[in-house]
Write a structure and sequence with these properties.
The complex is a heterodimer of chains A (187) and B (782).
Chain A (H helix, E strand, L loop, with lengths): L3 E6 L8 H9 L10 E3 L11 E3 L2 E3 L3 E3 L8 H5 L5 E3 L6 E3 L9 H5 L6 E2 L6 E2 L13 H5 L5 E5 L6 H8 L2 E2 L11 E4 L2
Parallel strand pairs in A: 1-12
Antiparallel strand pairs in A: 1-10, 2-5, 3-4, 6-7, 8-9, 11-12
Chain B lengths: L3 E3 L24 E6 L9 E7 L2 E7 L12 H10 L10 E3 L7 E4 L2 H19 L4 E5 L6 H13 L3 E3 L9 H10 L16 E5 L3 H4 L4 H9 L3 E5 L5 H5 L2 E3 L6 H14 L5 H7 L5 E3 L8 H4 L8 E4 L4 E4 L11 E5 L5 E6 H9 L4 H8 L3 H13 L3 E5 L9 H14 L10 E2 L4 H7 L3 H4 L7 E3 L4 H7 L7 E5 L3 H4 L3 H8 L5 E6 L11 E4 L9 E4 L5 E5 L12 H11 L10 H10 L4 H4 L3 H7 L1 E3 L51 E6 L13 H7 L4 E3 L1 H6 L7 E5 L4 E8 L7 E5 L9 E2 L11 H6 L10 E6 L4
Parallel strand pairs in B: 7-8, 7-20, 8-19, 9-10, 9-17, 10-11, 17-18, 20-21, 21-22, 26-30, 27-29
Antiparallel strand pairs in B: 1-6, 2-3, 3-4, 5-6, 5-22, 12-16, 13-14, 15-16, 23-24, 24-25, 26-32, 28-29, 28-32, 29-31
Helix pairs in contact in B: 2-20, 3-20, 4-14, 8-12, 8-13, 8-14, 12-13, 17-19
Chain lengths: 187, 782
C-alpha cells in the first residue's frame, strides 16, 4: 500500500516563501490565491509565533498545504463526493467539477488548508502536483534549502521513510485524529 | 509614431499579471532553456526556463557539476514569470515631450532615439569636451558584457564613468581589506564550509540575502559546525544560528576588540604565525608613528623594515634576526645619532587593545562580557574557524575599520591562508572577471575616458568640476531607490544636465525624470553573455529563453548604435558568441583563461579551475607594502589609524534624533528589482517601519499608524508595525522599495556621505547608509 506524504525539515526552513511562489506559478493561481503558505510572525494565523523579544528570541517557519489526511474530515463532510482519498497513493483528491461551493470542507479541515475561489466559490487546494508525479511537487523542487521532501511513507527505501526513521518529528493538531500526512522534523 | 503618450503612475500594488489559465498547470512546454538568473544577490543560479508561447511558465534548477549549486529561489521565479511581461514593461524608446518628470512622452523608433541622443552627445562633446558626457552603471545585471558595456562606451567615446561601488555602500569594507591584506575582496568557497568547525558570521544575513547558500551551512551544522551569528537585528539567519550575538548597531569594532583582547590576554594568539606573516614585529618610531627602516639606522640603508633581535639586543632588518621580538620598547640610535623611542607594531596596537577588556567592550557594544569571552575562546581554539563578513557592519562612517578588525582577529589566530578558515566575504569568478577585464575589451582602441567617484556625482555635476558634465546616461542601476539624494538629484542636479538618458526595463522613478528612456532586455531575452559566480567558481552562459519583449535591446546593441553614429562603430561590431570565447581566451586572470569553452558552450556551465579547498593567501603572500598582513598601518599614522582602535558611528542618538535608522536587505527582493512584482507584493505588501514597543509607546504609535521618519536632511512616511524583537532605539524597514511605496519621501533622502580620510585616501569615501539617526512621529490623519 502506498501513502504519499510530505516531510518538512523545520531546521532547514528559513521561511523564504520560495515554495509559496513556486506553487503559485506552477498552478497559475490568481492574485490572492495560495495553496501553500508559510506561517510566521508577520502573518496570521500563526501556528507557531516567534517566541520572546529582543535580545532573546527564537523563530521557526512552518510551510503548510493540504495535509492529505489518512482520515480526512473534508472528504467525510463533502456532500457531493468532490473530495475523496485515493486508494492507490493516499492523496486527497478534489474534483472541482463536482464541487458546489458549500465550504463545509473548509469548516471541517483542522489545518485551514482549503481556499475558495473569490468568484465561483469553488474549493481549491494542494494537489501534491499530481500532474508531475515523476518530478515531485514544485514546492519540493524549488526549495533552496532542501527542506521539503515528498514520497511514499511505506517504502522503506524512500527519503521520507528514512528521515522519519532517523529524526524526531511531529504532526500538527494530532488531536483532530485526521492523521495528517505532513510530518515536521523538529527545528 | 508621433502621438503623445502619457505613462500613468502605477499604483503601489500593481495590476494582476496574466498567468494564463488560472489553476491549470502547464504540462507541455515548447522548450526548456538553460540560462542564468543573475541579479546582484550573487547566487548566479543556473536555471531551466520552461517556455510556452514565448512566456516563461516555470523555473527549475539547472544541473551543475556540483549538485549543491542546483537551486533557485522565490525572487528568481518571480522575476522570470512576472517581471518580463509586467504591465509596466517598457517596450519601445520614449522621448520626453513635456517638462521633465511630467510623464509626457512620445514613442520613438530606435533610429530616432539613437539619432536624438547621438546628436546631443556630439554637441555636448564639441562644446565642453568628450568628458562632459557621463555614464553610471551598477549591479543590475551580472552578465559580463552587459555589466561592462557602460564603462566600455564611456571609454570608447572618451567620456566620464562614475563609480558605483561606494555609492552602493559596499566599499568601506574593501578599504579595510586593502589596507590590511592588500586586496579588496577575498573569500572561501561556501560549498566547502563543511570543512569548518566554527562559523563566526559578522552581519552576513545569509538566510535573507544568500538563501541559496544556506543549505551548505545546514549541512555543515549537521556535521557539527557551530554557527554564531552577530547581527544587531533579529533575522532569519539569527533564527537559524546556534547562537545570536546582538551588538548595538555600528559597534562591531568594539566587539572585535573585546575578542582580540581575550585572545592575546589568554595566550591564544598564534605567535609563530604573527611573527612570520604580519608586520606586527616591525619597529615603530613612537614619536612619528612611522616604521623604522635600514636607512634610519645607517646612511645608505635601504627601505627594509627593522625588527628587534633579542640575540644581539639591536635592530636587524626583518628576516635576518635570529630572535625577533613581538613585544617590547627600546631606544634606538638612528643614523644621525639621535636616540629614538621605538616599539613593535604589536606593542603599539596592544597599548590600545589592552584597554579593550570584555567589560569595556560590553559597555560600548552591549554584548555581555561573558559572551565576548566565550566566543573569543571558542573562535581561537576551534579549528578550522571561518569568519563570514557581511556588508552591513561596514555601512557606517568608519566601516573600513570593522573589516580590518575581523581581519586582525583572524590573523592573530593564524587563520588567514588556512583552509576552511580565514575571512569570507565576496569572491568568485564574477569578481575575477570584472575586476580586471581584458584591456582590449574595456578600452577598445586603447582609449580610456575619465573615472570619477560616484559618491560625489551630484556635487561634481553641480559644480562642474573637475570638468563640466552635461549629460548622464544610467544603465543597470536603480538611481532613485538604491542611491542617496534622488530628491536632490531631481531638484538641483538635473537642471545642470542637458541630457539624461535611462536604460531600463520598467518605468522606474529615475526613468520618469529622463529625457530619453531606452527599453532594455531582461537576461531571459538576452543571448550569449558570460556570467561568473557571485560567490562560486563556475562560469555560466546566458542564452535566450524568450524573444525580446517589445522592441527592447540589450546594452551592447544600444551602445553599438551610439558608437556607429559617433564614428566608433568598428569597436562595437561584435559577434555575440565569438566575443564570449575571446573574452575568456584573452582574460588577464589565468583562472578565467582556463575555463573550457567547449564545456561551457555544451553544458551552459563549466568549472573555473581553482585549487580545492579554495583558500585565499595559502601562499602567504600579501600584496601590501610589507608583503605581510598589516596589523600596523603606518600610512595612516597622521589620521590616527596606524593601530586598530574602535571608532563608533558618526551620528549618534541626540535629543532631536533619538533613533537609529536601518534599511535592511531581505529575502523578498534583490535591491529594487522585485518589489514591484505582484507575487512579491502579495507576500510582503508595502514597507512598514519596524519599531520597538517602548519607542512606539513613547510616541503614541500603534501598529498600522502612518508615521513620519525624519532628520535634518529628509523625511518619509509609511505605516508602522510594533515589533517585539526590534531593538529599542533602532527603527528599521526593508529596503528596495520605490517612491510609490511610500506615502511621501524616500529613505534615501535621509542619508549623507561625510568625507572619511582613510577611505578617500585609498580611493573613495563609502556611502554609510546606516550611519543615520532620525526621529519618528505619528502622522495626523486627515
Amino acid at each position: 500500500m502506498t501513502q504519499l506524504a510530505f516531510v518538512i525539515d523545520l531546521k532547514r526552513c528559513i521561511g523564504c516563501d520560495t515554495c509559496v511562489v513556486g506553487c503559485k506559478v506552477e498552478h497559475r493561481l490568481p492574485d490572492g490565491a495560495f495553496r501553500l503558505q508559510v506561517f510566521d510572525a508577520e502573518r496570521a494565523p500563526t501556528p507557531r509565533r516567534p517566541q520572546g523579544g529582543h535580545p532573546v528570541a527564537s523563530q521557526n517557519w512552518l510551510p503548510t498545504m493540504c495535509h492529505h489526511c489518512s482520515d480526512a474530515p473534508c472528504a467525510d463532510v463533502c456532500p457531493t463526493t468532490a473530495l475523496w482519498r485515493r486508494d492507490e497513493d493516499g492523496l486527497i483528491v478534489l474534483d472541482k467539477d463536482k464541487c458546489v461551493g458549500c465550504q463545509r470542507c473548509g469548516e471541517a479541515c483542522p489545518y485551514d488548508a482549503l481556499s475558495f475561489d473569490a468568484h465561483t466559490g469553488t474549493a481549491d487546494k494542494c494537489t501534491a502536483c499530481d500532474h508531475r508525479r515523476d518530478e515531485g511537487p514544485a514546492c519540493a523542487t524549488v526549495c533552496p534549502t532542501g527542506a521539503i521532501h515528498f514520497g511514499d511513507l511505506h517504502d522503506t527505501d524512500s527519503n521520507v521513510h528514512r528521515l522519519l526513521a532517523t529524526h524526531e518529528h511531529r504532526r500538527l493538531n494530532e488531536s483532530s485524529q485526521a492523521q495528517s500526512n505532513i510530518y515536521y522534523l523538529a527545528p | 509614431m508621433t502621438a503623445s503618450t502619457t505613462v500613468p503612475q502605477t499604483p503601489a500594488v500593481p495590476r494582476a499579471v496574466s498567468h494564463g489559465q488560472a489553476y491549470q498547470p502547464v504540462t507541455e512546454v515548447d522548450r526548456v532553456v538553460r540560462t542564468v538568473c543573475s541579479p546582484n544577490c550573487m547566487g548566479t543560479c543556473g536555471v531551466y526556463a520552461h517556455v510556452k508561447d514565448d512566456r516563461i511558465v516555470r523555473l527549475a534548477p539547472a544541473p551543475f557539476p556540483d549538485p549543491g549549486y542546483e537551486r533557485i529561489c522565490l525572487k528568481g521565479i518571480a522575476m522570470a514569470t512576472q517581471r518580463l511581461h509586467h504591465p509596466d514593461r517598457l517596450t519601445h524608446p520614449l522621448i520626453r515631450t513635456g517638462p521633465r518628470g511630467s510623464g509626457q512622452w512620445r514613442r520613438a523608433s530606435w533610429d530616432e532615439a539613437l539619432d536624438h541622443i547621438a546628436e546631443r552627445l556630439r554637441d555636448i562633446a564639441q562644446r565642453h569636451g568628450d568628458t562632459a558626457n557621463s555614464w553610471i552603471t551598477a549591479t543590475g545585471n551580472y552578465g559580463f558584457k552587459a555589466g561592462t558595456s557602460t564603462p566600455r562606451i564611456a571609454n570608447t567615446l572618451g567620456g566620464t564613468c562614475f563609480t558605483s561601488m561606494a555609492l552602493s555602500g559596499d566599499f568601506a569594507g574593501s578599504v579595510g581589506l586593502i589596507t590590511t591584506l592588500g586586496v579588496p575582496f577575498m573569500g572561501n568557497d561556501i560549498s566547502e564550509i563543511g570543512g569548518a568547525r566554527y562559523l563566526l558570521n559578522i552581519g552576513r544575513n545569509a538566510a535573507d540575502t544568500a538563501h541559496s547558500e544556506m543549505h551548505f551551512i545546514f549541512d555543515a551544522m549537521a556535521r557539527g559546525m557551530k554557527f554564531v551569528m552577530v547581527d544587531p537585528r533579529w533575522t532569519r539567519t539569527a533564527a537559524k544560528a546556534d547562537e545570536w550575538v546582538a551588538p548595538h548597531p555600528g559597534t562591531d569594532i568594539a566587539l572585535a576588540l573585546g575578542m582580540i583582547h581575550v585572545v592575546v590576554r589568554d595566550g591564544l594568539m598564534d605567535e609563530p604565525y604573527v611573527h612570520a606573516h604580519t608586520n606586527a614585529p616591525m619597529l615603530v618610531d613612537t614619536a612619528s608613528g612611522h616604521l623604522l627602516r635600514e636607512r634610519d639606522q645607517h646612511p645608505g640603508g635601504g627601505d627594509v623594515c627593522l625588527v628587534w633581535d633579542a640575540a644581539v639586543q639591536a635592530p636587524r632588518p626583518v628576516g635576518t634576526a635570529s630572535q625577533p621580538q613581538l613585544r617590547g620598547r627600546w631606544q634606538v640610535r638612528d643614523a644621525k645619532g639621535v636616540t629614538r623611542d621605538c616599539e613593535t607594531g604589536f606593542e603599539a596596537n596592544w597599548r590600545v587593545w589592552s584597554q579593550w577588556t570584555p567589560a569595556r567592550a560590553e559597555a560600548v557594544c552591549g554584548v555581555p562580557a561573558e559572551q565576548i569571552e566565550r566566543i573569543a575562546r571558542e573562535y581561537a581554539t576551534t579549528s578550522p574557524a571561518w569568519i563570514w563578513l557581511g556588508a552591513g557592519p561596514q555601512r557606517y562612517h568608519h566601516g573600513h575599520i570593522t573589516w580590518r578588525a575581523y581581519a586582525t582577529l583572524a590573523a592573530l589566530c593564524g587563520n588567514i591562508g588556512k583552509p576552511y578558515a580565514g575571512l569570507s566575504l565576496l569572491d568568485g569568478s564574477q569578481i575575477a572577471m570584472v575586476a580586471a577585464p581584458p584591456n582590449d575589451w574595456i578600452a577598445p582602441g586603447g582609449r580610456r575616458g575619465a573615472v570619477l567617484p560616484g559618491t560625489q556625482m551630484l556635487d561634481l555635476i553641480e559644480q562642474g568640476r573637475p570638468h563640466p558634465i552635461k549629460s548622464l546616461w544610467t544603465a543597470g542601476i536603480g538611481l532613485a531607490s538604491q542611491t542617496p539624494f534622488f530628491k536632490r538629484f531631481v531638484e538641483r542636479t538635473l537642471p545642470h544636465l542637458e541630457l539624461f538618458v535611462v536604460t531600463e526595463q520598467l518605468m522606474t522613478d529615475a526613468a520618469r525624470h529622463a529625457d530619453v528612456v531606452l527599453p532594455c532586455v531582461s537576461y531571459y531575452e538576452d543571448d550569449w553573455d558570460l556570467v561568473g559566480g557571485g560567490e562560486n567558481w563556475f562560469m555560466q552562459l546566458r542564452r535566450r529563453a524568450v524573444p525580446p519583449v517589445g522592441e527592447s535591446r540589450n546594452d551592447m546593441d544600444i551602445y553599438a548604435g551610439i558608437a556607429e553614429r559617433l564614428g566608433h562603430g568598428e569597436h562595437w561590431r561584435i559577434d555575440p558568441e565569438q566575443s564570449c570565447r575571446e573574452i575568456l581566451a584573452t582574460h588577464p586572470d589565468p583562472r578565467i583563461r582556463a575555463v573550457d569553452w567547449d564545456t561551457l558552450r555544451r553544458d551552459g556551465v563549466a568549472r573555473v579551475p581553482v585549487p580545492r579547498p579554495y583558500t585565499p593567501f595559502q601562499d602567504m603572500k600579501f600584496p601590501t607594502p610589507s608583503g605581510r598582513i598589516e596589523l600596523y598601518q603606518e600610512r595612516f599614522a597622521e589620521i590616527g589609524e596606524a593601530v586598530l582602535d574602535h571608532k563608533g558611528p558618526l551620528e549618534n542618538a541626540d535629543p532631536r534624533h533619538p533613533l537609529r535608522l536601518i534599511t535592511y536587505k531581505h529575502v523578498h527582493t534583490t535591491h529594487s528589482q522585485h518589489t514591484v512584482l505582484p507575487v512579491i507584493n502579495e507576500l510582503i505588501g508595502r514597507p512598514r517601519l519596524q519599531i520597538a514597543p517602548a519607542d512606539a509607546a513613547l510616541r503614541g504609535i500603534s501598529s498600522g499608524d502612518r508615521v513620519r521618519v525624519f532628520n535634518d536632511r529628509g523625511a518619509f512616511v509609511l505605516p508602522a508595525v510594533i515589533d517585539p524583537r526590534a531593538r529599542a532605539g533602532t527603527v528599521s524597514l526593508p529596503q528596495g522599495f520605490w517612491q510609490r511605496h511610500f506615502d511621501a519621501g524616500h529613505p534615501s533622502d535621509l542619508g549623507h556621505i561625510p568625507d572619511n580620510a582613510v577611505q578617500s585616501r585609498v580611493m573613495e569615501t563609502n556611502y554609510p547608509i546606516w550611519d543615520v539617526v532620525c526621529d519618528v512621529r505619528k502622522e495626523q490623519t486627515a
